[in-house]
Recover the amino acids of this structure.
């Protein structure tokens, strides 16, 4: 969805529904299914369990990127291919959202790093590389680490999900905003 971002959705919500508060609550990939049951609606990464109990609207596929030390030779190009990563140590954090990547990389000789934030700090020190969706690279950006798109890498689908039994007029309005409808649009 070109131009569709959560920030723009919140702005549109405030304009169209100023009498209804919107609260943004961060949720983890591993806890997203539980969180959706407690929220009116959530941005989630697919796959998500129990889809028959939820309404799920896929929104966009997020580009995977390689995160490495800012002074890594990998950062000398605008984009990378899986072959560019041959022999690199691939760090897969405990909160990984992409799953197995089937890249020509080596496994680390140290225990699993638990969070993406810690993994970014590790690669910033020059130890290994990390492959994550671009939004996570941006979220954990540091001066000593950078990222490049990974061509042909596994994308991560972002979707809007909400419990079927909790569809309200306000949720319907938010869905319309996410889908790009304006106050003057008809369904």
């Amino acid at each position: 969805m070109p131009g569709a971002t959560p920030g723009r959705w919140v702005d549109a919500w405030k304009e169209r529904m100023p009498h209804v508060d919107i609260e943004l609550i961060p949720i983890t990939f591993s806890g997203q299914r539980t969180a959706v049951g407690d929220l009116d609606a959530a941005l989630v990464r697919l796959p998500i369990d129990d889809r028959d109990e939820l309404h799920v609207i896929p929104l966009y596929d997020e580009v995977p990127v390689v995160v490495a030390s800012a002074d890594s030779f990998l950062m000398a190009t605008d984009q990378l291919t899986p072959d560019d990563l041959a022999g690199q140590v691939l760090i897969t954090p405990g909160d990984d959202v992409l799953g197995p990547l089937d890249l020509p990389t080596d496994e680390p000789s140290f225990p699993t790093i638990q969070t993406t934030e810690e993994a970014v700090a590790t690669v910033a020190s020059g130890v290994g590389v990390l492959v994550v969706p671009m939004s996570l690279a941006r979220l954990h950006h540091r001066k000593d680490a950078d990222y490049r798109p990974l061509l042909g890498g596994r994308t991560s689908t972002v979707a809007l999900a909400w419990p079927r039994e909790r569809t309200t007029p306000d949720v319907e309005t938010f869905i319309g905003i996410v889908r790009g409808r304006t106050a003057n649009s008809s369904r």
